């Protein structure tokens, strides 16, 4: 069996390649990803009261996440450059757990999924929050980044069972 038959991201010589999706049909696709950034209570309070010296943290993180998802194919090897037809990021402050939950919902119509772009949007939004707040809290922790749901394509719908709302 040739390497390319066994692993989709390798050619006959065992070198990396981008999977050919020419034969696939365009379908409507959606991906929902979530993550969180944990911080000191004082940091969260400063964010919520718009007291960070760098400005409105969540507004900047919103734009950062959108910009990040648009650059995914430049960051992840072998990732297709896809047309993103819609993106939205939501932030839910959680005072009890000293964190901000981040959710990204992206849409496209195309031959390949948009899951990596949604995960990238969450990651970049969290990194943006970290960057804007690091002067007051270098102990922040970014985590829990995961795919919640995806629709469309040959494999159909995936929904993380423990995350249904």
Question: In terms of topology, how is this protein built?
Answer:
Blueprint: H1 3-6, E1 27-38, H2 41-48, H3 57-70, H4 72-75, E2 86-94, E3 99-110, H5 115-133, E4 141-151, E5 158-159
Antiparallel strand pairs: 1-3, 1-4, 2-3, 4-5
Helix pairs in contact: 3-5
Pathway: Cofactor biosynthesis; molybdopterin biosynthesis
Organism: Eubacterium callanderi
Domain Molybdopterin cofactor biosynthesis C (MoaC): 18-153
Explain briefly what this protein structure is.
With 165 residues, the protein is an alpha+beta fold. 30% of the residues lie in helices and 28% in strands.
Structural notes for this entry:
The chain is α+β, with helices and mostly antiparallel strands. It is built from five helices and five strands. 30% of the residues lie in helices and 28% in strands. Strands 2-3-1-4-5 form a five-stranded antiparallel beta sheet. The longest helix is centred in the last third of the chain and has 19 residues, at 115-133. The chain is elongated and about 55 Å long.
